[in-house]
Amino acid sequence: MKRWSLFIIWSLFGVISSHPQCLDFLPPFSPQNPLSFCYRHSSLACCTTSDDAALRWNIEETLRVKNITVLRDQPIETCYGHLRDLVCSQCSPWSQHLYDRGDLHKISNISLLHRLPGMCSLYCNKFFNYCSTTSDFLLQLLGDDFPSNVSDYCDNVQRSNDASYCYPFEEDAAKYERRKPETIFPTSDVCVCLKPIVSELRNPLAAVSPGDGSKRLFIIEQIGVIHILLNKRLLDKPFLNISSSVVDVSVRGDERGLLGIAFHPKYKTNGRFFVYYMMWIYRKGDAVLVSRVSEFRVSSVDQNVADRNSERIVMSIDQPSWNHNGGQLLFGDDGFLYVFLGDGGSAGDPHGEIGNGQNRSSLLGSVLRIDVDHYNSSHAYSVPSCNPFVGVNSVRAEIFSYGLRNPWRCSFDRGDAITGSGRGRLFCGDVGQNRFEEVDIIEKGGNYGWRGKEGNTCYKRSQCSNIDDEKLPIFAYSHNIGRSVTGGYVYRGCSFPSLRGNYIFGDYSTGRLFTMTEAATNGEWKTEELCIADQTVCHGGLTSKIPKAILSFGEDEDGELYLLAVPRALPKRPDGTLYQIVDPYERVSPELCNIRRSRPVGVHPLPAAAVGDCKIGDVNVEINNPDPTLVTQLQQRREDECNECERRPFEYSLSDYDYSLRVLILSINEQQDNSLVVTARVINSYYGLRLQYPTTIHLIQSADSVKCGCPHFNVHRQHLVLGHLHNNSQFIIDTNTHVILWSFDAWKSTRNK
Length: 753
What we know:
six-stranded antiparallel β-barrel; disordered C terminus
């Protein structure tokens, strides 16, 4: 019975609909280059060219290891094409339905046994009866795991005689149209699904990339713990645990705790990051609730663990109540830290004659901008001289904008990858009181109206008509639609072109998602409810069910967006989930996205409103000393970066040699001297050169590439070694990346075969 277990699993095929879907549950794409092995799927596929090469290598390696050249007096080539087509079915736009398995997307690590799709029973019998060579090949390859009776085998691998669910039938995926479920409210034309990434989180409030090239995502839990997500799983050891310092949160809906994290722009080299959390301190015997912004540093011995003892307190702000704490931390392109604070809580901002929102002598109800790179023993931070209220009497110089009630989740737009359009815009969701929720674009010196206004309407009539420098929200919605806005991000990722340029946000109380797009002609914003595809599309590893409480959104290093949600906001209950937001209908080839990500188009100039007319190193004002006569000029400390690397010309043409190697990058490791050691496997060669498999070569990125930040190698991407330079130790891969071949003797031995 044991040997039949895999085949029984194959027979359990139960997809809801024949919607095009790959083994990773995402839609098919157009490969960057035509596939040479699985060429039938070159126009629309679930495989990159690297995957295609890995499939070829897997079959050829199996043949070599098993020493299979002749079967029943027939050369293996007789049925090689049939075997290839079966194996290549995982590149089919319908591969998820043909395999009905969720663990096959790592192609290079899967045995041939798992590469066979569910076949229609009639086709299966005809195939094995006609192609006895392949049948014997499978017998030798799989041994006892393969039944000797072909009929028994076909009976156990058939999905159904319904041609929609078994190989070789394939519907034309290009003709599959987007379908929208019927809804009461107008929805977007683009429908999305959610892909669960990790669960059992305790009120996850942020998912942030450190921007250091590590592809890690840092997830903060409200109780005071920060986890690292790497390769779709949480590391066992937390990055930081400050739960002993954070105020205890256990009540449903508690707005205190660890609320924000931001990584210094130079985190990769200085290891500095900042957190916003709430704690009790004792002052003259009384307990005082404070919001604290602290700096920590990464451990010197483990980049996945923070140094708990490195805390440096940047600021502590008294909180008069438990709610409306804001908590977002962001670094802008100007290099300064932005701190987002609520109005101090309670209801209606009852603090003083005009409320904290309009009181610029209070930091509450504001967005602060501070310089955390210039400080001394008496001042934990400095104030940029170009902040809007520097030198204004009775106004805190740290304030960048004000008039906010409870800014919950804010983000900078990273801008269009090609044009830079939109870069530097600061979006915020500001939670309303009784009637309206709003989304704002935060600008320097802007007054966002609270408590005079809530959304676009009056809240406190005595203040409503007397709001200086008022900035209206770009969108406000009533409590008939939702009751607590959760700000999101502008999608700037590569994978899902239909979402690009959309600001995606949600509502905490209803579980609804929304999308906003700006008209290029007049700058007006169009808001729609984001369509969620139904379960006939969002099946397998995707879902259309959103937990009611949308806590936050996240953005990874590549600009892909995530949603963090829980069924009920109980801070200590491990029922939170991180989802990726995906378009189930369309995506870009992963290889093409890797190229775009590794080759930025350059730095786009920021509009003056976005950068605030200053940068790190400009004149700074120390806190408590706003008098312009005390201003001192500080030396700019930003490092110059190369916009474009020096690229040596290709000195030898391919025709000068009788060889070329194609390698698959397996791993990349950074050394103490900042060089990158790249391990690669030779996949195949041209011009009839026969290699022993597997052959591993070690490559190191050149000094020029390290210095200028040239595109890095991509793991599991195929690279072609075109030729060598004059010293026989330096090679060119893909014509634009210089590498040094360490194991040169190993390479020579393969060349001489």
